[in-house]
Amino acid sequence: MDAETPHPEDLFGYPRLIARALRGVAREVLGRVAGEGLPGEHHLYLSFRPDAEGVRVPGFLADRYPDEVTVILQNQFWDLEVDDDAFSVTLTFGGARQRLTVPFAALTAFADPAVGLGLRFEPPVAEEGADAMAGEAKADAGGDRAEIRRKSGGETESAEGGEGEGGEVVSIDRFRRD
Protein backbone atom coordinates (compact mmCIF):
# COMPACT_ATOMS: atom_id res chain seq x y z
CA MET A 1 0.00 0.00 0.00
CA ASP A 2 1.20 3.50 -0.68
CA ALA A 3 0.53 6.68 1.29
CA GLU A 4 -2.52 7.43 -0.89
CA THR A 5 -4.24 4.12 -0.15
CA PRO A 6 -6.28 4.17 3.04
CA HIS A 7 -5.44 1.64 5.73
CA PRO A 8 -7.99 -1.05 6.31
CA GLU A 9 -9.79 -0.32 9.52
CA ASP A 10 -7.99 -1.87 12.50
CA LEU A 11 -10.95 -3.28 14.37
CA PHE A 12 -8.69 -5.03 16.87
CA GLY A 13 -6.53 -2.07 17.93
CA TYR A 14 -3.27 -3.95 17.48
CA PRO A 15 -0.89 -1.20 18.64
CA ARG A 16 -2.85 -0.83 21.88
CA LEU A 17 -2.96 -4.61 22.41
CA ILE A 18 0.77 -5.00 21.82
CA ALA A 19 1.69 -2.11 24.12
CA ARG A 20 -0.61 -3.51 26.82
CA ALA A 21 1.00 -6.95 26.44
CA LEU A 22 4.51 -5.50 26.70
CA ARG A 23 3.52 -3.50 29.77
CA GLY A 24 2.31 -6.87 31.09
CA VAL A 25 5.96 -8.02 31.04
CA ALA A 26 6.77 -5.23 33.51
CA ARG A 27 3.70 -6.16 35.59
CA GLU A 28 4.68 -9.83 35.77
CA VAL A 29 8.33 -9.14 36.60
CA LEU A 30 7.40 -6.64 39.32
CA GLY A 31 4.89 -9.13 40.74
CA ARG A 32 7.60 -11.76 40.99
CA VAL A 33 10.01 -9.27 42.59
CA ALA A 34 7.32 -8.33 45.12
CA GLY A 35 6.96 -11.98 46.12
CA GLU A 36 10.50 -13.28 45.75
CA GLY A 37 12.85 -10.27 45.67
CA LEU A 38 15.37 -9.48 42.96
CA PRO A 39 17.39 -12.52 41.88
CA GLY A 40 21.13 -12.40 41.21
CA GLU A 41 22.43 -9.25 39.55
CA HIS A 42 19.02 -8.10 38.29
CA HIS A 43 17.99 -4.50 38.86
CA LEU A 44 15.11 -2.69 37.22
CA TYR A 45 14.82 0.76 35.68
CA LEU A 46 11.26 2.08 35.56
CA SER A 47 10.45 5.33 33.77
CA PHE A 48 7.05 6.98 33.84
CA ARG A 49 5.14 10.20 33.26
CA PRO A 50 4.72 11.93 36.66
CA ASP A 51 1.73 13.88 35.32
CA ALA A 52 -0.20 10.80 34.13
CA GLU A 53 -3.53 10.00 35.69
CA GLY A 54 -3.21 7.98 38.91
CA VAL A 55 0.52 8.62 39.46
CA ARG A 56 1.32 9.56 43.06
CA VAL A 57 4.86 10.81 43.69
CA PRO A 58 6.33 13.40 46.04
CA GLY A 59 5.78 16.92 44.68
CA PHE A 60 9.50 17.73 44.57
CA LEU A 61 10.07 14.74 42.26
CA ALA A 62 7.37 15.78 39.80
CA ASP A 63 8.61 19.39 39.93
CA ARG A 64 12.21 18.41 39.23
CA TYR A 65 11.35 15.88 36.49
CA PRO A 66 8.05 17.05 34.94
CA ASP A 67 8.31 15.00 31.73
CA GLU A 68 9.68 11.65 32.88
CA VAL A 69 10.85 10.14 36.16
CA THR A 70 13.17 7.12 36.24
CA VAL A 71 13.55 5.06 39.39
CA ILE A 72 15.78 2.05 39.97
CA LEU A 73 14.82 -0.98 42.01
CA GLN A 74 18.05 -2.55 43.16
CA ASN A 75 19.24 -2.62 46.75
CA GLN A 76 17.04 -0.30 48.77
CA PHE A 77 13.33 -0.44 48.11
CA TRP A 78 10.52 -1.45 50.42
CA ASP A 79 6.92 -2.58 50.39
CA LEU A 80 6.65 -3.27 46.65
CA GLU A 81 3.00 -3.97 45.89
CA VAL A 82 1.68 -4.88 42.46
CA ASP A 83 -1.87 -5.23 41.22
CA ASP A 84 -3.43 -5.43 37.75
CA ASP A 85 -3.35 -1.68 37.16
CA ALA A 86 -0.41 -0.22 39.13
CA PHE A 87 2.56 -0.78 41.39
CA SER A 88 3.52 1.00 44.60
CA VAL A 89 6.95 1.06 46.18
CA THR A 90 8.79 2.96 48.90
CA LEU A 91 12.14 4.48 47.90
CA THR A 92 14.64 6.80 49.57
CA PHE A 93 15.04 10.35 48.27
CA GLY A 94 17.42 12.69 50.09
CA GLY A 95 17.54 10.36 53.09
CA ALA A 96 13.76 10.20 53.50
CA ARG A 97 11.54 7.30 52.51
CA GLN A 98 8.79 8.22 50.06
CA ARG A 99 5.91 6.15 48.67
CA LEU A 100 5.26 6.13 44.91
CA THR A 101 2.27 4.69 43.06
CA VAL A 102 2.49 4.31 39.30
CA PRO A 103 -0.20 2.90 36.99
CA PHE A 104 1.26 0.60 34.34
CA ALA A 105 -0.38 2.81 31.70
CA ALA A 106 1.97 5.64 32.82
CA LEU A 107 5.14 3.60 32.16
CA THR A 108 7.34 4.95 29.40
CA ALA A 109 10.21 2.47 29.84
CA PHE A 110 11.18 -0.72 31.64
CA ALA A 111 14.68 -2.18 31.62
CA ASP A 112 16.64 -4.99 33.24
CA PRO A 113 20.30 -4.24 32.39
CA ALA A 114 21.48 -7.54 33.87
CA VAL A 115 20.07 -9.31 30.80
CA GLY A 116 20.22 -6.38 28.38
CA LEU A 117 16.44 -6.06 28.10
CA GLY A 118 14.69 -2.75 27.62
CA LEU A 119 11.13 -1.88 26.69
CA ARG A 120 10.21 1.67 25.65
CA PHE A 121 6.62 2.87 25.36
CA GLU A 122 5.24 6.05 23.91
CA PRO A 123 3.03 7.59 26.55
CA PRO A 124 -0.71 7.20 26.02
CA VAL A 125 -2.39 10.01 24.11
CA ALA A 126 -4.99 11.79 26.25
CA GLU A 127 -8.41 11.33 24.70
CA GLU A 128 -11.93 11.40 25.95
CA GLY A 129 -13.79 8.18 26.56
CA ALA A 130 -13.13 4.83 28.18
CA ASP A 131 -9.70 4.34 26.61
CA ALA A 132 -8.40 7.57 28.13
CA MET A 133 -9.76 6.59 31.52
CA ALA A 134 -7.86 3.33 31.27
CA GLY A 135 -4.69 5.21 30.30
CA GLU A 136 -4.62 3.67 26.84
CA ALA A 137 -4.22 5.45 23.53
CA LYS A 138 -6.25 4.78 20.43
CA ALA A 139 -4.34 3.28 17.54
CA ASP A 140 -5.59 5.83 15.03
CA ALA A 141 -4.36 8.75 17.17
CA GLY A 142 -0.71 7.80 17.03
CA GLY A 143 -1.50 5.35 19.80
CA ASP A 144 0.73 3.37 22.06
CA ARG A 145 3.96 2.34 20.44
CA ALA A 146 6.51 0.10 22.02
CA GLU A 147 10.09 -0.76 21.26
CA ILE A 148 12.08 -3.69 22.55
CA ARG A 149 15.80 -3.25 23.13
CA ARG A 150 17.94 -6.26 23.80
CA LYS A 151 21.66 -5.88 24.27
CA SER A 152 23.57 -8.69 22.65
CA GLY A 153 27.17 -7.72 23.07
CA GLY A 154 28.84 -4.93 21.07
CA GLU A 155 27.12 -3.06 18.31
CA THR A 156 24.09 -4.51 16.56
CA GLU A 157 21.95 -3.49 13.64
CA SER A 158 18.85 -1.53 14.45
CA ALA A 159 15.41 -2.42 13.14
CA GLU A 160 15.78 0.33 10.56
CA GLY A 161 18.90 -1.38 9.19
CA GLY A 162 21.59 1.03 10.44
CA GLU A 163 24.34 0.46 12.94
CA GLY A 164 23.05 0.82 16.49
CA GLU A 165 24.81 1.07 19.81
CA GLY A 166 24.01 -1.23 22.70
CA GLY A 167 21.13 -3.24 21.34
CA GLU A 168 18.59 -4.03 18.71
CA VAL A 169 15.46 -1.93 18.44
CA VAL A 170 12.29 -3.60 17.28
CA SER A 171 9.38 -1.24 16.79
CA ILE A 172 5.82 -2.42 16.29
CA ASP A 173 5.55 0.30 13.62
CA ARG A 174 7.75 -1.95 11.50
CA PHE A 175 4.84 -4.40 11.16
CA ARG A 176 2.21 -1.85 10.13
CA ARG A 177 1.13 -1.55 6.54
CA ASP A 178 1.87 1.79 4.90
Question: Summary?
Answer:
The protein is built from three helices and eleven strands. It has 178 residues and is of the alpha+beta class. The protein has a six-stranded antiparallel sheet with strand order 2-1-6-7-8-11, covered by helices on one side.
Written description of the protein model:
This protein has one domain (14-175): SH3 type barrels (Roll). Helices cover 19% and strands 31% of the residues. The chain has helices at 14-36, 59-64, 130-133, and strands spanning 44-48, 69-73, 78-82, 86-93, 96-103, 107-112, 117-121, 146-150, 156-157, 163-164, 168-171. The chain has a six-stranded antiparallel sheet, with helices on one face. A three-stranded antiparallel sheet has the order 3-4-5, with helices on one face. The protein has a two-stranded antiparallel ribbon with strand order 9-10. A hairpin with a 5-residue loop joins strand 9 (156-157) and strand 10 (163-164). Mean pLDDT is 74; it is low at 126-145 and 150-178.
